[in-house]
Here is the input.
Amino acid sequence: MNLADPWRETWTRLALAPPATAFDQVLAAYREPHRVYHTLQHLEECFQRVREFPGSAEQPGEVLAALWYHDAVYDPHASDNEDRSGNLAGAVLLEAGAAVAAVTRVRSLILATRHDTSPGPGDAALVVDIDLAILGADASRFDQYEHQVREEYSWAPDPIFAATRRRILTGFLRRAGIYTTAPFRSRFEAPARINLERALARL
Here is the structure.
């Protein structure tokens, strides 16, 4: 995918002109050498989901902006990545002339990708479902994803990583639904549960 296309679409839908260096800066963020999963590949997969489910967003430009920036700050040692990513998105949007209300909504969408609670309805649910679509990917891509996550946390000893990962994956399985929106639930719920069970069996 040529990421320049969703970048242009984002700002067209927002009816704003992006800061001149913003595109190169966000690409550089996702190319940081410590990233293995949270890379441009992940961004491309997110925008592919947007294309596959057109018309799902209430505020399409804000959803696209949130997807661009939801992992713009990613430090596997930190617990405030979403907060910092939201702040970065807000700064870029404000520089472009976005209304404060729009900035607040985009930041809220990014914070929803912490996945610590079920998202609210509307665009938050959509952004979260797009971010979690990897759980319902075909088996080979899901297994690659699991390997990529482990590499990002290569500094963590095996027992600690396995215990933490087991808690996270079990948390998803215990939800009444991993996905909130009907299209994502229909397509990804069943394969996600199969993938998660396989992953847990390996830990």
About this structure: The mean pLDDT is 97. Residues 4-202 form one domain. Residues 182-202 form the longest helix (21 residues).
